[in-house]
Records
---
Amino acid sequence: MAEFQIDNIIKVARELELLDKIDVIFADFIMKLEEYSEDSKYLWLAVLFLSKSTNSKHTCLDLHNIAECGVYDLIEDETGIPENLPNLKFPDFDIWMNKIKGCVKTVVREQDASDVARHIVITEDGFLYLHKYWQYEQFVVAAINSRKVQKQVVNITRDNLKPAFSGLQNTKWQEIAVFAALCQQIAIITGGPGTGKTTTVATVLAVLQKQNQHISMVAPTGKAAQRLTESIRNTKERNDFFKTIPEEAETIHRFLGYNPRSRTCKYNRNYKKHTDIIIVDEASMVSLSIFAKLVEALKPSCKIILLGDKDQLAAVETGSVLSELTNVNDINSFSSGMVDFLKKVGFDVSDINRNDNQSFVDLVVKLVYSHRFNSKSAIGVLSQRINDAESLEDIDAVNKVFSQTFEKGEAAHIEIDENTFFQKLKKLISTFIKDYKKLLKEYENCIIDGSDSINDVVDSILTKIDETKVLCAYRRDETYGTVAINNYIEKTFLSKDVAPFYNGKIIMIVRNDRMLGLANGDVGAILQDVDGVSYAFFRILDEGDRFIQIPVSALPEYESAFAVTIHKSQGSEYKNVIMVLGDSTGKLLTKELVYTGITRAKESVTILAGEGVLGQAAICRTKRSSRIQQFL
């Protein structure tokens, strides 16, 4: 086995550009601060991979994973590497650790990190952090640990919840989740689409509201906050049990008083937000940094309830808090104390396992019954089999879904390559485009005739644009990205010259504008008046109005949205989904991405992917390094 040579490793990394330039620049910066000592060469190499790790959304780097590896083991693309290059070996773990600890100008040991500010934190068991991410983890762990030992007295029984779940079936786990949230200062309620997360949290709010406590509801994006508000309103309309609960949600950034110019928050560890209960929806989208800032701004007595689908895509930024907190052995098993409590308030606990091995097991409840998808639903079965797939042998079960007939919904898989993709896409969207153009023509006739039915037509157009959606794994891919597909649809079907604004252009807002009432993720249609002036129309939640009309000149940043990325679609629903994965595997194609795309569909999903691409994606689970569970 090749001997380790630090100078040669550094030379190879620089000359062959094995890592991104930003990683090399940061490693050079740290090495300079260490005044180019001999030990700093070892630190340079570790920091190189730490930077790569954090840029890949990991919170930390486990040195064990790269110690004693060969260069080739860590290079994802070996093309372009000279054939005569030796497979240089990385340092032994113990030697590497000792060398890094000797770099005292930029490295601090974990036990001293709270008091001494350095760029890099190293733990005794071989994890490296950028200091800010270590600190974020500490904030989150402290907030959870302090709350998980606090128990609340609950003076109601299961019978008291009957009005909340009137008319619904299979609500046992929803009811258990209610009691878990009531009796603890932190609770995580997870479940797929249609499992009743909103009804569950609305029930919690209805009970807690009687205690005259201040309740806040937040979400990671403006669109998610709007959807939470809408869901709560719909729940209130369905059942008078909820008629007095709060319904207005806001973004986490707005809740914290975030200032984008200074990148600081008005509310923080020194100036707490005075709220007694906080609901965080779409928690899978919340990054480590924003969750740390949120919990730091809360009073120690504030109850935290997280809602989200643990199987969905993780946050775009570093960290995966919900995934870490829901990674429980034997989920929906509880400590003996919790099982006894549930029995006392009226539950049959004969089917609930006792688990006294994990201290945070009581915090997590998974809602298992979908009121929207079940074993007779194509979407439900396909999404479950994607989640269950662990190896290529499991892909046969996934593929069988495409040849089955279901009572509800449809699922299809069409193989593609660069030569056939657009032809197959055109066939799939032609009916939608044809119907959409009919509505646009009807709108144009109403404009010319001055018809009173124009508002109904606009309403139909806004309904239609969310009926069928192309969801893509990529944005910039030259063939399979949203930019390329939007351009193709616009040129082929709607506008020969693709003018900036034309009748029927579908757009998505990508920057919040509170003055206009628009949120990142809002989708609307551009329509022209009788004089050819273009306006953008968007759905709104305000009672009495169905949509708002905004001059295009006043719009915040937006992009075309016949096709959107799967990331951007999170939380949205469409009658029909056409999911484009491309013709080759890649880093972005993961189990979570495929699951998220499939579960955006209410009736049908068609997956366009190259041979073997879906199968590889289905068994590729997102893994982000973190030590949150270890601390809990």
---
Amino acid sequence: MNKNSYGHPTAIFITLTISILLTGSSCQKNLNSKGLQATSLAQTGVSTGSARLIANTPVPVATALLNNPMGTAVDVSNTVYVADFKNHVIRKITPEGMVSTLAGNGIAGFKDGPGASAQFNYPISVTVDRAGNVYVADFGNQRIRKISRDGVVITLAGDGIAGNTNGAGVLARFNGPAGITIDGNRNLYVADEFNRLIRKITPEGVVSTWAGDGKFGYVDGRGVEAEFANPQFIVSDAPGNLYLTDGLYNKIRKIDRHTVVTTLAGTGYPGIVDGPAATAQFHVPTGISVDMNGTNVYVSDEFNQRIRKIGPDGKVSTLAGFGMGLTPGGYMDGPGIHANFQNPQGLSVDAFGVLYVADYYNNRIRKISTEGFVSTMAGTGTAGHADGPGITVHFEWALDLTIDRSGNIYVLDEGNRLIRKITPKGIVSVFAGSGLQGTIDGPGVFAQFNQPNGMASDSSGNLYVAETVDHKIRKITPDGTVSTFAGSGNYGFADGPALSASFYFPSGVTVDHDQNVYVGDLYNNRVRKITQAGMVSTLAGSSTHGYADGTGSAALFNWPNGVAADPAGNIYVADQINDKIRKITPAGVVTTLAGSTFGYADGTGAAARFKGQHHLATDAAGNVYVADYGNHAIRKITPAGVVTTLAGNGTEGYADGTGSAARFSHPEGLVVDAAGNVYVADVGNHRIRKITPAGVVTTFAGDGIGGY
């Protein structure tokens, strides 16, 4: 069986840094000469069976538990606030070392009200005003929330529907509010990631566009003349200047009080180079903060596993961490150059110059003293755990699916770094992976994955996994043995023998009827082919990103993401930034099957619209299925290019039902079985959903609680 698809730059943020996403990745070094040092802080969750509720009783930092903290903020009393991303709560850490939950009950959802009963949906970042009110970029809810000093949560702006609308309060719309900051006049600024805009919210709640034209790109200029790729974290200084990380372009941007956008540091190329701002290099910068005087800017350099500093003279240095680009992070406190992080995200600086870092995969809050010593302020590094009957299982960012000839479903559980197996009876188990981050080949549970994104299976039951940030394709045999199938591990572009070939953020993967493996090579803007004899070649695309149909290298893509093969050997590509579904014949001829501009519309060919399409799958009749991530829907495209919505209605949520009555939350991966049933990795709902050919949606596995 072939499968089709990707995951995201979250992060590659992805998300994801993948991000997405979406997310991306991000290499040599000149450590600063002061021999700086590093430390850590806190977190604790209580499992209550069907719902994970967070303990509201303060606990010491040494026993507190966090679940992928993303953002931090510090107030004038040195109380630290944490966006506890996968616990869906806002945590509070006092100077005395006690951790409590300020707001949120630990269940993903949306609800205003007193702190303990309020609900958030993947809060990413926080900021705090002089009066002690906390503001939250509630990413999954597409809203900006406010928490008063007594813990009451209200919605300041956004109606919960992804979009781009200015206006007052709940009349406004956001699309991936990620970073948030506040200036001296109590204006809020939001890095609206998927709209590629910087939004401003006045104290009265009126939302407007401060900078950006909404197009994907890199342009300095005034206000709406500027362009961003994926603005994430943002911070303001005392005079009112804004600083933000534009991760996919590996740059630090600055916006002055007159909306003029300039580049503060970074060449745009991923790497690890200290020195003058114009020649310095970052590798997917995420978190950002600035000291009280606005003289020093601090940056979480995620894929370099470092905290960088941009001084008043414009020179970039390494404050803490010793990663060398794409090397897996780790955990170690100590002097700056000896400390280790694992995908650091948001950070904040207090009045005394002490930094607080959300150390994402270490599930800790780290503290960096003015002398550069890194310690752990909070968190033990532990999260949650559970296998068993499908409906009781936890998934953490299930990004992709594939199926074997026996009807077993395999789940790429990116957040847990595992490949999970679901039998036709719904029993879930671990097929491969130890849960530890790394790139270790070997038998089943002894193997390690770093950031797997796409997965497919061949007719013999072998699985192929795209390891995005390691630039490799891994292979898993039916007995669970993991090996490296292709890729040297060095990012770049090179065809040839599989283990010496180079990829640059491979994301989607599929297998045709001849057992050839195809890869959506995201940053190379190419679709690659790997034969079973171990030779890598380029099927279509070139180093230039853009949009053009044509044959082979004459065709242009802009982030080819998910891929899928039909029974005739045609390859379909989710051309993400172009918002189109492309078709490649076995001869390498590229055409556009469907899609035009960013949006939501059914129709034929160019009349149809998609919003952030990630993964694809095909059935025996040659129909293509699209996980329309931003529209929260599953779309179907006939061989003639007619696009319809199979399930979902464009509104985010969770509901089983038929067709438009069903709801999804950021569907990612999908696969079709021999009977025509479609299985969907419903990422935001932490569930695997099943759609019959008649469009009836049910929940196949997962209880809706993130974790393992």
